[in-house]
């Protein structure tokens, strides 16, 4: 089968190679899935460079989120499996045998339902970003109807999910993004206010929107200066969700400021939660399926690349050129 393979660490353009490799062997408790689409995540760039916290052994194939069709199920679990041959599913392959390949073999615990009516690209984009946002907003921040939610990088994969989930929860949503096109995308997703951080001061805009009170919940996948500025517009007893550090700088927080305004700094490590509480993850997935099927959420997919152009897809992701999720279609 064909797969994109990394045999040495470095920038993705230098180390990703399209190769013919043996098909993965079946494992106990697993399903073989023919990949239809692979959703890229920022960690795919980092793992190529050896900069992600989890370092798979070389050689490896990136891609931790796919949609596809079940082609086989291990004999030990076939009888009671929740899926059957021919079913379309979402799957989370584990590195080193990632999803930028024609086939993956994935434990059934990491195989999930596809929402009715979803395209392969939407299905591939459905899991990690929406689960991260749902976990952050509902389980950690306890977002309430009528509260103000500030979402940074609102036109990105996880940011676009947070806007939609915030609106579905009854929050008033402010989003930030870079450039007029991305700002308009945030408005189309349902944001009540959208701010171009390149030309405007989001701190003053949030204060104006809330009559000086500030945002109750701040969803920050950017870090760096954005985190520093966010502390200036968080409400008393607010919750600042630390999703990631796409800016490249991990900020430092003066805890006396958190004490004075009684706000919480909440770390969001969905990956560990996903491993520790699989039943809770399935409950969240069922809730997300209902929201999708009710028309309240829909993955933002505008960039679908052919399988042979996976490097260009990663270029778009790493260069901040993309809106929503970046998808690599099956060969």
UniProtKB/TrEMBL annotation:
Pfam name, any one: ADH_N
Any one Gene Ontology molecular-function term assigned to this protein's record: zinc ion binding
Residues in Enoyl reductase (ER) domain copies: 12-328
Protein name according to UniProt: NADPH2:quinone reductase
Species for this entry: Alicyclobacillus vulcanalis
